[in-house]
Amino acid sequence: MLLPGLFWAGNAVVARSVAGEIPPIGLAFWRWTLAALVVLPFAWPHVRRDAKAMLAGWRILLVLSALGIAGFNTGLYLAAQSTTALNIVMLQTTVPVLIVIASLILFRDAVTKRQGLGIAISLAGALTLISHGAPEMLTSLAFNVGDLWMLAAGVSYAIYTALLRLRPAVHGLSFLFATFGIGAALLLPLYLGETVLVRPMPLSWHALLAVGYVAVFASGVAYLAFNRTVELLGANTAGLSVHLVPVFGTIFAIVLLGERPHIYHLLGIGLIATGILLATRRPAA
Q: Where do the structural domains in the chain lie, given as residue ranges?
């Protein structure tokens, strides 16, 4: 559950840092293409065994790939073209709540009092970190079309998470390779159009490093861990992984950038930890 938040913490920062240099659809297309190629050597033995089951479940694989692979990250990268990394992270914190709503609408999942309280406490902690302990800062944020893209991306990922229970009963690596490959294929026509009509993907070290990070860590490792967390804890609880994004972002800023820790850092991280522990704790038999 820790790994998705750890590696997604860098995703919004990378997307914002290359905005204007790397076209958004190009970044998404090469992210998933490279991620599929990186996963393939490890997934191949399982793919051969699971091919029949995946072909039988091609419809749900297509839907999951469109929502969680092609849709979510393309929306995030489009958002990064015109909004701030802070706004992206703030809007991303709504994903756990959106997952609860999606699970309720699609499957009539009940939310226990413990889960609901845990999600609320964790959300309060995430907003504490984002606002630097000053709630009035949230009301002063300016929103634009980029924020609408991010909100749409969050809805897409929430539905993806809720629908993961319908995935074919195949190995996690087989599922990862299939969804990455299908997601890249769905983006290919858009990528070709962007290359011809807007601008091509640049060949620079900055671009290669950005694609490498989001492909290997924010895609391969993070998605494998997140999908497994959904399998073990359910969609509503697994969604709290998103609230770990500002936690690790804060830790990186303090450890790597030398920023000074403040009381609101401890308060925000403490609230998130409390909320996650409350939501994941299983009642005694």
A: 2-280
